[in-house]
Design brief:
The chain has three helices and twelve strands; from the N terminus they run βαββββββββαββαβ. By secondary structure, it is α+β, with helices and mostly antiparallel strands. The strands form three sheets. The chain has a five-stranded mixed β-sheet with strand order 1-3-9-12-2. The chain has a five-stranded antiparallel β-sheet with strand order 7-6-5-4-8, with no helix packed on it. A two-stranded antiparallel sheet has the order 10-11. A hairpin with a 6-residue loop joins β6 and β7. 20% of the residues are buried.
Amino acid sequence: MKARSILFSGAMVRAILDGVKTQTRRIVKPPSKIVPEWPFPITPCPYGQAGDRLWVRETWWQDRRDQLVAVMDVDGYTIDKHQASNATGCHVGDMAGLRANQFWRKRPSIHMPRWASRITLEIVAIRVERLQDISEADAIAEGIEPMFLGETPDMKRLGARVQFKELWERINGPGSWAANPWVWVIEFRRIPHG
């Protein structure tokens, strides 16, 4: 069993914590020599295989004495604040609702060390598919909830798949959905710290 890091946006971290996000899609990077429809089975997934673990990197804050770690949401309020030990990885305490101030240093998610991470995921399954092959059920497993527009009985439903397409383009840029790349579909479950 190996452990690797993975980045998620604040909204997707909240979906994982709420238990509604159990899948993620990441673009398959082709080999350096372009081969039409290269054989995926010989290309290992860079995120691991079933049974491996992923630890989530988030934007985080550390106090000036390097003793406390706080994971902040987008408006600057603490989601989780804990004492972390880089030797044990233990998390102690929770003081949610505190606001960041001059005693804290903001750290980008890419620089979060393993010991500061509060979320560990176990890979359940991995497969490869074209991005646009995502089903409505899989879009919901990506943490997207269908929306209903209007308040009348005949209100229009905006499906999770349509919303996932919009999210994908916000993250990956205009035209990224139309490119229909091959993606790793990583199914996971959250492992409680303790």
